[in-house]
Amino acid sequence: MRCSSTISSSEEEDASVQRIEVSAGGITVTLVSDPLVSRYGRVMRPGATSVSELPWDEVAGVALSVVGLPPDGERRVTLIVDLIYGEYLEVHEDAEGFTDAVRELCRHSGLPVPDLTTTAEAVIFTPPGS
User: Fold this and answer.
1) Which of left, alpha, beta for 11 (phi over 0: left; psi -120 to 50: alpha)?
2) pLDDT per residue over 10-68, tens digit each?
3) Among 8, 13, 43, 82, which residue's CB has the most CB atoms within a 10 Å radius?
């Protein structure tokens, strides 16, 4: 008996879209993932939408991390939103609204927008009174 995979990861990528918004009320991170469908058209996992609404009083801080990956030195830029109860969310630079969120967080905290070509890690938001 010959087994074959019913899900072709090389033909179908798991498509998801991440969004970040910064408002007067806090930070909202949305993740929308498409359904995972087998090559035979069967839905293996339904699509989903996850919305994390983080009011300012739950945000312990936000850091910007830039990591160089070997062997070609590709750079990955990520926002790490630390929460007061010990959890965190990562938002990647390809997320919708990423650049605007970085600018708004820096403006909100009074810090300059970091230069991503030279920065390895920078705190870009700290709650008032920290």
Assistant:
1) alpha
2) 334 557 899 999 999 999 999 999 988 889 989 888 889 999 999 999 999 999 988 87
3) 82
Q: pTM to 2 decimals?
A: 0.75
Q: What angle do CA 122, 80, 101 make, to 5 degrees?
A: 80
Question: Buried (b) or exposed (e) across 48-85, using 16+ Cβ within 10 A?
Answer: eeeeeebeeebbbbbbbebeeeeeeeeeebbbebbeee
User: DSSP label at 38?
Assistant: -
Assigned token pair, 6: 């019913």
**Token output for 125:** 């938001």
Give strand ranges (E) for 1-130: 16-23, 26-33, 36-37, 43-45, 48-55, 59-69, 74-83, 88-92, 121-125
